[in-house]
Design goal:
357 residues; mainly beta; Immunoglobulin-like; Jelly Rolls; 2 domains; 9-stranded mixed sheet; 6-stranded antiparallel sheet; 9% helix
């Protein structure tokens, strides 16, 4: 009986030992539960700005100005893509707004619509400017003359109070000149101009063979009444010949000829036709220059042109609108290159003229 109890006790110990060993084995071989991956934070949501659909803009333009009796009329057009609001158009005469009647009401204009309107409370006070320079012009003691008295500058501006949000804000105004347009033929008076070369003043017109250069009139086969002008620089490298023009006058019976500067009028252009004579074979070309000289002898070269082909005349048109109101003498200049050989320059036309466009 004792032995049975002993054996039972030992068996129980064995079973408990095996249970503990199994539990330890399971604990050491079972892998740990995997760690859940880190969830990235949600990126911020970005929304593109909402742009309102383009509905278009107006664009008011003055297309025409004219004088009908004593009434100034104009045409105005909406060149934009939206209706224009009610606006006002202003008129300026010789850069001044009239004390009465200087505004004109403009009702709504649809895209593409054009209307003819007028300055109904303003009457044109001038005789259309038909005044000759001889009557109107008096040389100022400072040495300049205002030939603008023979005509009047008229500027008409749409949307003068900036009431319309326009596609283009710089095309509202248009300028016209009423009266006798100024037309000054420089070729006809080239013999009155003051001519200089590298060495100083040269009064002798000279000829194509003159070593000091030349400036002389030649017949024009196309227009016999209008002479051409041949300008030749001195026969030295980089030689030059230059003529100074202005308003030529005499202040008395026994006075010598004088030259006054000219106030540049509105809408003035320098228009020329120039080139090398047909017998200029061998020339390396010349540079032609057009410019102004002020009352203090400061020179501004406004435009230049290089000509190289004998017998080929080129048209030249220089807009002088940016120089309106300046007191200036007019300069024509011819410059030789490295070689002065056969640099025979012909000016078939050279005019200062007001152009209404």
């Amino acid at each position: 009986m004792k032995h049975f109890r002993l054996y039972s006790f030992l068996a129980l110990l064995v079973i408990m030992s095996l249970a503990v060993t199994s539990a330890c084995s399971t604990a050491t071989t079972t892998p740990a539960a995997p760690t859940a991956p880190e969830v990235p934070s949600t990126p911020p949501v970005t929304t593109a700005p909402i742009t309102a659909p383009v509905t278009g803009t107006s664009d008011l333009v003055i297309t025409k100005i004219w004088l009908d009796g004593l009434m100034v009329k104009y045409s105005i057009k909406n060149m934009g893509t939206a209706d224009s609001p009610q606006t006002y158009t202003y008129i300026y005469v010789n850069d001044l707004m009239p004390t009465m009647g200087g505004s004109s009401f403009v009702d709504v204009l649809k895209p593409g619509e054009e209307k003819t309107l007028e300055f109904s409370n303003y009457q044109w006070p001038y005789d259309q400017g038909l005044i000759t320079p001889e009557v109107a012009a008096n040389v100022n003691p400072s040495g300049y003359i205002d030939l603008r008295l023979q005509n009047n500058k008229v500027k008409v501006c749409a949307d003068a109070n900036n009431e319309a949000g326009e596609a283009i804000e710089t095309n509202n105004c248009r300028v016209m000149v009423f009266g006798l347009l100024w037309d000054y033929d420089l070729l006809r008076v080239s013999n009155l101009a003051t001519w200089r070369n590298n060495d100083g003043e040269i009064s002798d017109p000279g000829s194509e063979g003159s070593m000091t250069g030349a400036h002389f009139q030649v017949p024009n086969a196309d227009m016999e009444m209008t002479p051409q002008l041949e300008i030749i620089p001195p026969q030295v490298p980089q030689g030059w010949m230059q003529g100074t023009y202005g308003y030529f006058y005499s202040d008395g019976m026994n006075s010598s000829a004088k030259t006054a500067a000219i106030i540049i009028p509105a809408k003035l252009h320098f228009v020329a036709r120039v080139g090398l004579t047909s017998n200029s074979t061998g020339s390396d070309g010349v540079t032609l220059k057009f410019g102004f000289k002020d009352l203090n002898d400061n020179v501004t070269w406004i435009a230049s042109k290089k000509v190289t082909t004998p017998g080929a005349l080129e048209n030249w048109d220089v807009d002088l609108s940016d120089y309106e109101g300046q007191k200036s003498y007019i300069l024509l200049r011819v410059e030789a290159g490295d070689s002065p050989v056969k640099d025979f320059t012909i000016w078939n036309q050279a005019r200062l003229i007001q152009i209404n466009d």
